[in-house]
Amino acid sequence: MAVLALALPALAQDAFPVSIEHALGVTTIEAEPQRIVTIGWMSQDSVMALGRVPVGIPYTAWGGDEDGFYPWVKAKLEAMGQGYPAQLNYDDGIPFEDILALDPDLILARYSGLTADEYQRLSTIAPTVAYAGERWSGEWRDITLVVGKAMGQSAAAETLVAEAEAQIAAKRAAHPEFSGRTFAFAGGLGADTGEVAFYVSTDPRVQLMQDIGLTLADGVKALPTDRGFNIPISLENLSSVDADIFIAWHPDEAGEVFVRTNALFSRYRPVAEGRYIPIINRSFVMATSAPSPLSIPFALETLVPRLASVLQ
Predict the structure, then answer these.
(1) Between the N and C ends of the chain, which has fewer C-beta atoms within 10 Å?
(2) In Å, how far are 18, 32, 128, 142 from 302, measured between CA atoms?
(3) Residue 302 · residue 271 · CB < 8 Å
(4) What local confidence, expressed as pLDDT, does residue 9 receive?
């Protein structure tokens, strides 16, 4: 497995204090942070890619290994050799007391579902950086750059983005057949369902597919982006999101069987024409769901060959 940015060159540090605007306010960071806690997705990857092990990150039972780490996170931690962060369980909400006990001087939640009340409470513990627009929405470049700014490492963050973009561009150039082909991406698709949740244009999964050269289907482009990161479409209306390629992650194999055997799905053009890509491996699901300078190489390793195979 490729892991991006094992070591970054020494670059100039930003001057503090720095201020970061976000959907829940403006956060000022007075000095270079030393004890960072991350909430949600992607922020932890950027912190580690910039050479710092957070003091606390989310525990990842779904998609993680037996220790609760994503494969690219475990590989990066082992390469850094600076120990392991505390893992915080968010299953029952924000573990405020556990976060307080870690004595953080910065909390990064750039891709998260923080409420205004949770943000205010966290801000009494340490400066907290929330998402740019809607909850659980964001773009991997912005997340990387904002994390870099918060850590006083804007130049290094720009280098990380450039390196990831170069990897993506190389894959795109190697596969000109991706250009102009439309796609729709759905998630959490189990068996015996009457509707499919399609990810909207602001979702990072969609953005990654566009980065590698695919075009979001017009029907998906038309879906509202202010009602969450996905919109349900009934099976009877699948033709409204017509696409060349249908990508869907499933909680288990039963979801794939459902797509391949359901009468309504059998008439959905990308399925009928053999351009359906099921994703069941949970680590792969998360790599495509939460692209970052660390997870993008992991995602591309599997995603690009599978896309190429259905477009032959």
Answers:
(1) C
(2) 38, 37, 35, 24
(3) no
(4) 56
